[in-house]
Amino acid sequence: MTPPQRKRREPKPPPPPQPPAPQPADGEAEPKNPERLYTVAGSEDGARAELDLVTLIVARDAPQPAASPEQAAVLRLCANPLSVAELSAYLNLPFSAMTVLITELITAELVQVRAPIVRRAVPDRSLLEAVMHGLQRL
Amino acid sequence: MDFNGSDTIPGPRTEDHLPHTAQAAVKIVIVGGFGVGKTTMVGSVSDIRPLTTEETMTQAGIGVDDNYGSESKTATTVAMDFGRISVTDKLVLYLFGTPGQERFWFLWNGLFEGALGAVVLVDTRRLEVSFDVMGRLEERGVPFVVAVNSFPDAPRYPVEELRTALDLTPEIPIMECDVRRRASSKEVLMTLMRFLHSIALTGALT
């Protein structure tokens, strides 16, 4: 029996710079992303910090009585470092809503952010070796 | 929103807490068709019980990538399961099992762009389901290995026949695995890491 046949693809060149998005008539500067739904977070302009699924969030302090229930929940969960993905899972919030909530906490200096290590054109060998050693211990 | 007071929200179990020394995380994406075993693989190697993160997309986004200007706002939930492995007390590895359709990938910031690499999990009964995924990864320059989840009733092909069918260059590893077994899933991840390491040594992804 012969398996079905695929055809290999080549890497695409990086996309050309996007033309500036058309400005809405009311003069609002932030382009809205229609796929993302914001339901919990209170920030008005929807601005979000650059958060990856695996950005680690750590609370700077225990939640204060003035904190909203959502903020208090995040701060309690982040007593130890926790990824944005895990926060989203434990709080049952869509990832995009989670990033807005965390952006508020960053702005209020209530949490610390530990950025992920991302893939580079030339991979970092010592990083890969560390991951391999870690996996070998499983 | 189902927020029944923050005190009742279940968090990680005490043994699942990351140490305060955890400085940074890396991620690997496991991608494949529905039912191919992505979540099983995540669960078999994860330190924690697999979790699910969700994202909402509008109905207009289903099957159509460019839905700007559309008036339809019916929300659909797309879920992604993931697990975690503590590599060292400073470094954490996350594994994300994601659907093969590229239209879901943009829902999560940097899902593939930031990943160290990807595992394409295939089922030889539905080999063609994985064709588009591999093409998309090639276009994006994401290094990947191919793991064939050996279902008992699936046709078995010699690796070189699979390599030809999948039109993969000779250096891309292809292996059989049984993702229900921790050792087998671990070997798949190790194969990906060795492949990434060889890329680091030669300095190029062909």
TrEMBL record, chain A:
Residues 1-10 have a biased composition (Basic residues). InterPro entries: DUF742, WH-like_DNA-bd_sf. PANTHER family: DUF742 DOMAIN-CONTAINING PROTEIN (PTHR36221:SF1). Residues 1-35 are annotated as: Disordered. It comes from the Bacteria. Residues 13-23 have a biased composition (Pro residues). The lineage of its organism: Bacteria, Bacillati, Actinomycetota, Actinomycetes, Kitasatosporales. This is DUF742 domain-containing protein. Pfam families: DUF742 (PF05331). Signal peptide: none annotated.
TrEMBL record, chain B:
Keywords: ATP-binding, GTP-binding, Hydrolase, Nucleotide-binding. One of its GO terms (molecular function) is GTP binding. Pfam families: ATP_bind_1 (PF03029). InterPro entries: Gliding_Motility_GTPase, Gpn, P-loop_NTPase. The keyword rRNA-binding does not apply. PANTHER family: ATP/GTP-BINDING PROTEIN-RELATED (PTHR42708), GLIDING MOTILITY PROTEIN MGLA (PTHR42708:SF1). Belongs to the GPN-loop GTPase family. This is ATP-binding protein. It comes from Streptomyces filipinensis.
